[in-house]
Design brief:
Structural class: alpha+beta
Largest sheet: 3 strands, mixed
Strand order of the largest sheet: 1-2-3
Low-confidence stretches: none
Order of helices and strands: EHEEH
Number of strands: 3
């Protein structure tokens, strides 16, 4: 198991990459063997410029793959 924090760079020059980021994230989640408190946990942070970050979800929020992919 591993804890993974994903950072989406949504600043002006990178905002068009959102679909690529989402596809990469889904691929990574689908290739992770076990997800949850006894497996790997994911967090997502969005960056849109200096001093502008937003945590979409924390490591312990989703307890299985379905919740994570739909979150």
């Amino acid at each position: 198991p591993i804890d993974i924090v994903i950072l989406y760079d949504l600043s002006t020059n990178s905002a068009d990459n959102l679909p690529k980021y989402q596809n990469l994230t889904h691929d990574l989640i689908n290739k992770t063997a076990e997800i949850g408190s006894n497996g790997s946990q994911f967090a997502l942070v969005r960056y849109s410029g200096p001093g502008r970050t937003d945590t979409a979800f924390h490591l312990n929020k989703h307890t299985n793959r379905t919740l994570l992919l739909n979150g």
